[in-house]
Design brief:
membrane, 12 helices, 2 strands, binds fe (ii) ion, UCP07580, transmembrane, mainly alpha, Metal-dependent hydrolase, about 325 residues
């Protein structure tokens, strides 16, 4: 699968990605079970810094991302069988378990969004169409690349969120805060697993980049466009609300602003994926992770402690 093997030596050198090194890989991760019991009446539609459209983006992301997570789960399951390294297999089982719980609990949040008048069923029908007729029909190597691409974007998002913890505490909606903080912690924790599977089975730069662009377009462009509908669907009077339109530029800046926007300020990290020798752990988040595990999971004071049920780490099978 090495596309570069027929190219001249200097070009080949440029495209030679770092192969998977089993000795240097991270340890397997725990799968944490949570229980949130979301209720429509507790949903804050301006959860994200009191900005309606920026909050709509995250609600839309919650809806569409479950389809991406289901693709990650199916793809990881398929490729786990092709792996030889037992630790990498164990890590893939952790990835599958963490994503399965993200998907299930975000669906519970999405049901609450639906009951709070967000266009959840409409977005689900769009997502089903795109995945059933597009992404889920791709050949397995391309799905593997797409999985690594999606995980890159969730890692970028997680690093931004962990670096901007204050975002979560601007709203009284403790359950939205908890699910996003838990999800972002785990996205950062497992950010290297899909990539290591890809490098272990393919290590083709061209194929890896082919999965980056559909992930980019879906997460940054299509979900953003869909989210434009949310404020009007939820509250049609927003169409004529001066305060809604006046606040719109702030929402756009919060997501795409180059200064401090979620994606706008993360371009260097996003595009670093295009570097042939890229590895997710080149972006060291170990200090964030240590801090967040304490902040979220401390048995008495953790933000997630009221919602935490149990955790277990998959067994190593040799
Ligand atoms: Fe996830
Ligand atoms: Fe993930």
């Amino acid at each position: 699968m090495q596309i570069a093997q027929f190219l001249p030596q200097p070009v080949r050198h440029f495209f030679s990605a770092t192969p998977f090194d089993a000795e240097k890989q991270s340890a397997a991760l725990p799968i944490r079970h949570m229980k949130f019991d979301f209720k429509a009446e507790e949903i804050d539609p301006k959860f994200y810094l009191n900005a309606e459209l920026a909050s709509a983006y995250f609600a839309s992301l919650s809806i569409f991302l479950t389809y991406g997570e289901d693709l990650v789960i199916d793809t990881a399951r398929y490729h786990r069988e092709l792996l030889n390294d037992p630790v990498l297999k164990q890590r893939v089982t952790s990835l599958i378990g963490q994503e399965a719980l993200h998907s299930r609990l975000h669906e519970e949040l999405n049901d609450a969004f639906r009951d709070a008048d967000l266009p959840v069923e409409l977005f689900r029908s769009w997502a089903r169409f795109v995945f059933d007729h597009g992404f889920n029909r791709l050949p397995q190597p391309m799905k593997l690349s797409l999985m690594a691409g999606i995980e890159h974007f969730t890692a970028v998002l997680a690093e931004y969120m962990m670096n901007h913890e204050e975002i979560f505490f601007q709203s009284h909606d403790e359950k939205q805060r908890a699910i996003w903080m838990w999800h972002m912690l785990e996205e950062s924790e497992h950010k290297d697993i899909a990539y290591d599977v890809f490098q272990s089975l393919s290590n083709s730069y061209g194929l890896r980049i082919a999965g980056f662009f559909p992930a980019l377009i879906t997460i940054l462009v299509l979900i953003s466009i869909a989210s434009l509908l949310v404020p009007f669907y939820r509250k049609p009077s927003n169409l004529f609300s001066l305060s809604y339109w006046k606040d719109l530029p702030r929402s756009i800046k919060l997501i795409f602003g180059l200064q401090d926007g979620v994606y706008g300020s993360s371009w260097a990290h996003i595009l670093d994926y295009l570097r042939p020798g890229f590895h997710p752990n080149d972006h060291d988040t170990s200090a964030f992770l240590a801090y967040y595990k304490e902040r979220l999971l401390h048995p008495e004071s953790g933000v997630l402690t009221p919602y935490f049920v149990k955790e277990f780490t998959p067994a190593l099978k040799v």
